[in-house]
């Protein structure tokens, strides 16, 4: 429960500074595009892939390469495997005696030991500004190499677990609806420019994705993303009671108490969202369209996937940009179809409470077919200091020039 003026306040200030819109965030986005291009360029036509497994592996590498640089510990397959085994064991580590989850403890140590070697060898000097700045600000507090390494395991948890699950569900909801896919492709093509470089021997296409225009030019994609978060997130918001309060003439909240607000109770409340609250409606968040049920305008604060207020996720800009980059490149470069012939939506796994985005209970096998024109050439990203931010929270929307 540290505040910005508390003992560890400078750590939080550094974290928020690096992850806020600006040059350092844009540098991480650019690296992510390069890594993502490397990872998907080799997909051959007709390749059958287990979508959830593929997304998890590729997101793990793309995100951690972006964060930790060329000496990324997650490039070792045993470190990646140990991390995800630890992630599945977190509920038992929290709720049960340690002897009941020795495997989870062992896998956590595998990842922590890899980070300890990473820092002791000075490999963080080649990493992103986030890693370098956090390392610099944390050293004066006297954290041991072991302490610092275990802290980094927690940072990795925050950057990977929810991002990969959000990418899986967004990919599923976009490609499982032909109508939505066509509409999103039209939007993304409007923020993608293509040029051709000719040489004596060949010609190369260069596709540039302008991520700064997602907010203004891709409202249907943004709405689909928000709806994905609404139906698949299960995070909590925390509030501390500042003074004795009686809420709604019913509930007595005592000063100093902590209030835990589960987002699911808000995201599935028909009084807020209407009678179709449990249905996935791609255009639910479009400001200019209303469904057949004539939904009323919903407050931006009702979408709690990134928390809010003092507990607002500092990495929301980085995660959102990475997810938007991922889905934009997929819809432009590939056709994806289920090998079974139909998109059967998996159930959600509600057992892993530390994750804000619930993962799927089973995988979906799909077939990738590259789209000839957009799969050729090189992909670049265009960003700017402030416009490259997709506003999803009430706090961000308050400062968004796109919102009246």
TrEMBL record:
<feature type="binding site" description="axial binding residue">
    <location>
        <position position="313"/>
    </location>
    <ligand>
        <name>heme</name>
    </ligand>
</feature>
<keyword id="KW-0408">Iron</keyword>
<dbReference type="InterPro" id="IPR001128">
    <property type="entry name" value="Cyt_P450"/>
</dbReference>
<comment type="similarity">
    <text>Belongs to the cytochrome P450 family.</text>
</comment>
<dbReference type="GO" id="GO:0005506">
    <property type="term" value="F:iron ion binding"/>
</dbReference>
<dbReference type="GO" id="GO:0020037">
    <property type="term" value="F:heme binding"/>
</dbReference>
<dbReference type="InterPro" id="IPR036396">
    <property type="entry name" value="Cyt_P450_sf"/>
</dbReference>
<keyword id="KW-0560">Oxidoreductase</keyword>
<dbReference type="InterPro" id="IPR053007">
    <property type="entry name" value="CYP450_monoxygenase_sec-met"/>
</dbReference>
<dbReference type="Pfam" id="PF00067">
    <property type="entry name" value="p450"/>
</dbReference>
<keyword id="KW-0349">Heme</keyword>
<protein>
    <recommendedName>
        <fullName>Cytochrome P450</fullName>
    </recommendedName>
</protein>
<dbReference type="GO" id="GO:0004497">
    <property type="term" value="F:monooxygenase activity"/>
</dbReference>
<keyword id="KW-0479">Metal-binding</keyword>
<dbReference type="InterPro" id="IPR002403">
    <property type="entry name" value="Cyt_P450_E_grp-IV"/>
</dbReference>
<keyword id="KW-0503">Monooxygenase</keyword>
<dbReference type="GO" id="GO:0016705">
    <property type="term" value="F:oxidoreductase activity, acting on paired donors, with incorporation or reduction of molecular oxygen"/>
</dbReference>
